[in-house]
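User: Predict the structure for this protein chain, please.
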Amino acid sequence: MMTATAEAVQTVLWQPQPGPQTALIACPVFEVFYGGARGGGKTESSIGDWLDHSARYGENAIGIFFRRKLVKLAEVIARTRQLFPKLGAKYNEQQKTWTMPNGARLKFAYLERDSDAEEYQGHSYSRIYIEELTNFPSPSPVNKLRATLRSGTGVPCGMRLTGNPGGPGHSWVKARYIDPNPAGYQVITEETEIELDGVKSTVTLDRVFIPSKLGDNNLLMRNDPTYILRLRQSGSEALVRAWLEGDWSIIDGAYFYEWDEAKHVLPMSFAPMLKPEWLRYRAHDWGSAKPFSVGWYCVVEQEIDWRGEVIPKGALVKYREWYGAKGPNVGLKMTAEDIADGIKHLEKGERIRYGVADPAIYIKNGGPSIGEMMARRGISWRAADNKRVAGWSQLRSRLVGDGNRPMLYFLDCCEDTIRTLPVLQHSEKNAEDLDTEAEDHAADELRYACMSRPWVPRAVPARAARLPKSPADYTINELIAKQRRKRLEAEGA
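Assistant: Here is the predicted structure, written as structure tokens:
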């Protein structure tokens, strides 16, 4: 039952709107992802949750509110300045911390780099809020911060996360919170075995997705009825649809907007069509803390008629991948020798003509380079052409191909390439490049592969078009003659 203080907070200072906001405030689940659509009241919901939590648990309530960048916290802090002083709360500007009259504390912080989360190890919080979760390329900081949720006084701890579709972290957020139940409200339970004082036990952590749409925010629609009109005018049709409906299948602003799974992905049953004597090669993007990616490619040396579609000569088919990751954008930390041994095993019995890899593998740091260590195990590489924008242009040209026939295909076993490539976004610093904070390892490996086999679209000779004359270009006699011909044609009909 809500305490008198908590009830006062909700009825006098802030009150959740019916629907998702009310569900969030009442939700007992440890980890909640709230959001989807723009204008769904995500920030307001997080602030309201803290008001309720702090009113319930007083000085034992310790919260922290994160965004990716410090500048993005300004609007959140501004909103709390409108509300919290009315309760008698005091704000410490230097520490960016609110202290409520009952002793509860809420701190604001930012996580510009994933490693920034390490600064909070050893801290204890009862509530963690992370806004715009899809701005985080990896779940790594979230995982690290989850360990700081603990309370020696029995306060139920929890994590409240918000976000919209798109951004460098779209893929992992969608996989963790949306894909298990796109409609939301279904609790997902994750079990972990722990050992305490020599006794093993199983600990469960629950998570749930609470979807919110613009239509759920009646307060915004009532106070600012033109908002939806401005929203419709501020982006493409796909983006606006994602903003309004919270559609996680729509990726607007994707770097490779040419991607079409129906065109570019082939089933494994296509593999026998790739003749063993055709040229095969591999490409590699090294990674240790981050994932590595190895891809194997076959050059189509004669047209293939596949279920009514023609796979053109010269096309590349990525028929195998090895993506070294233990989680979204988290590497396996394998040695160069172990990766080389794995490659040898996977391509046993095949004739691989060459391999290309990031030139950085040949940098020496006081010992043999990564490339040299792999060569000792029988896996050698050429230094790939590492031009980024030119490489993306090559990849894009092959995705487009000649009209309706792409020059780059993927077997459906290349799951991580298919998962990560469509969601990559443009870099904020350089629109011609993609966002390097995203999970771009398979894309880099693809870029090396394409640059090793440059493809130029076939030039089609332009036919001189004969433009019709405008009325001003005709003489009076020509116009009269033209009208007469039309009349005679009509009478003849």
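Confidence is low (pLDDT under 50) at residues 1-11, 461-472.
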